[in-house]
Amino acid sequence: MFRSTLRIATRAAVIATRGPVRPAIVAPRMFAMCRYASSSAADAQLVASLRAEQQVEQEALEQEANEAEEFSSFLSNQGFTLVEKPGQDEVQLVRTSGDETLRIFFSPSDVINSDSVLDDAEGEHEETEAAANNDGEELEFSDDFDVPIRLNIVVERSKGALGIEAIVQDDLVVVESLIPYPSAELAIDETAEADYKRRAIYGGPPFSVLDPSVQSSVQEFLESRNVNGDLALFIAEYSSYRENKEYVSWLGKIADILE
């Protein structure tokens, strides 16, 4: 179940409408005992809330179990292999053809961490507050907002690697820049030293200001490798599914620590 801006805004509205908490008057000699009892109660309440949310999201995931099979079928047909590890945010799509290896790195959490999602949630919170003063009229929410997902595409060849920075926006792969690397290792190495070296490489002008013929050729280059609108839709759908899956695990890990 994707945690839409409706749920975010509703929770924010509930918190905002709560009045100030009046501090309890506690006798000094009873302070330590009451503090312990209060902490235990708060722990139990938090764990119960986490478990309840985990159950709701787990049931939603089970209803979408067929999506995992559809994802695998799509990737197989497109020639991609999915590389992922439970608990880690970044995932990778790999496609090999001859002496070329294409890698696409992205983070599923972009579907909830983007500024557009947070801005929509804040805006809907304000609308919720306004609706409360409009004779009880019911306010309709929409979760149709753009969620850009950043892509780091690396095309590895024997002479080096081409880095392509892009975003998934709706059903489009929008290229932002092209960066030539002297080696594939430099392009994908995650060490601080490699990151420093990458920053020193001239990245060229923004893709949008390149000659239209170059832009068109780059798009054809990607589409010939199945980096197209279908893949953009897959990445968006998979990111939502994967983020929800990790969210369920995240809830359970926190509850396990506190129990």
From TrEMBL:
Designated name of the protein: Mitochondrial acidic protein MAM33
Top-level taxon: Eukaryota
Any one GO BP annotation for this protein: cytosolic ribosome assembly
Pfam families documented for this protein: MAM33 (PF02330)
Gene Ontology terms: cellular component: mitochondrial matrix
SUPFAM superfamilies (alphabetical): Mitochondrial glycoprotein MAM33-like (SSF54529)
Organism, as annotated: Wickerhamiella sorbophila
